[in-house]
Amino acid sequence: MIDNLVVGIKNIASYVPEGIQDSEYIARMSNIPKEVIEKKFGILKKHKAGPDEHVSDMAIKAAKKVLQGFDPMDLDLVVYCGSEYKDYYLYNIAAKVQYEIGAMNANAFEIHSLCSAGVYSLKVLKSMMLADPKLNNVLLFTSSKETDIVDYTNERARFMFNFGDGAAAALLVKGCKKNRILETHMITNGGFAEDVACYGVGSRNYYNYEVLDRSLRNLDVKDPKSMKERLDPISIDNFTKVVKGAIEKSGYSVNDLDFVAPIFMKRSILNMILKNFNLTEEQSYVLENYGHCQSADAYIALLEAERLGRLKNGDLVAMIGAGTGYTWASTAIIWGEQK
């Protein structure tokens, strides 16, 4: 009998392409010392998809991996929560993946909240599943190839030099008590909404033919100094607040927190957040060998932590994400198999 009050993550999988851009490569392309790339930017290496491997290709590989042993015909819904930079502009990648994996009984749609979507989508889908008796098995997936649109010669885009390619997928099942999804907390500050964008793409510049220049289709930052001055004083506090909010909404105390599955951030920033919860680096995972794979980060961190033996049954975990716009989000889960 299905427990209609519980939604769990039955399986998690990730995929990263074989290509590598390491700190030496980034240093050479950006003319920034390798030591700065590794220490200040927090990146040792990241994965790079080839010209013939697209966002949907990586997504399909992660989706098929997460569905091993599960019939895709039993899926009720397929949802994409990844990068808005996809195979095509104004294109439904969720429908593409639904078709390619053979989930012919499932509907498909997309959730966009930039790099916080992978975390916040768990709340959206859990709520939908609990409200709809016919929604029992959902595939959530994310994918990103944003390395394509990062220009290493553009100093304004420095904070995006850590972007890496990759995909992740999660199989959500109603009544499943494995990796049980608890509550979510989000903070939004729309004052940052136009700070980062591909400014040459979209309705504002559609009739401005000068923007056909390739560089104007890349990610850019309007005023890096201003964004940093406004973002730095609030970012760590907001990460702390969303973790605390998700935990307390779930009926726990911050003292119960066992593990943080983070978005990509350099080691020093992650340790500041962990310190606020009396946690050590062994109770998290530094994504210095992956870079920032958009909404896939927290899922990759969970898989790596499991591989390293840093997670145990019953651990209270906070998944965290943040997206330009600017949003900070955290979802709490109880790790492992539960009775």
Give the class from helix and strand content and strand pairing: alpha/beta
What is the number of helical segments per DSSP (H or I, 4+ residues)? Answer: 8
Q: Count up the domains.
A: 2
CATH superfamily assignment of the largest domain?
A: Thiolase/Chalcone synthase
Order of strands, main sheet, comes to 1-7-6-4-5
Q: How widely separated are the two ends?
A: 14 Å
How would you sum up the major sheet? Answer: 5 strands, mixed
Reading the helices and strands in chain order gives EEHHEHEHEHEEEEEHEHHEE
CATH architecture level-2 label of the largest domain: 3-Layer(aba) Sandwich
Tell me the name of the CATH class of the largest domain: Alpha Beta
Count all strands and give the number.
13
What does this structure look like?
By secondary structure, the chain is of the alpha/beta class. The chain is 28% helix and 22% strand. The protein folds into 2 domains: 172 residues, 3-Layer(aba) Sandwich (Peroxisomal Thiolase, Chain A, domain 1); 153 residues, Peroxisomal Thiolase, Chain A, domain 1 (3-Layer(aba) Sandwich), CATH 3.40.47.10. The strands form 4 sheets. It has a 5-stranded mixed sheet with strand order 1-7-6-4-5, with helices on both faces. β4, α4 and β5 form a beta-alpha-beta unit. α3 packs across α4. The longest helix has 26 residues. 45% of the residues are buried. The model has no long low-confidence stretch (mean pLDDT 95).
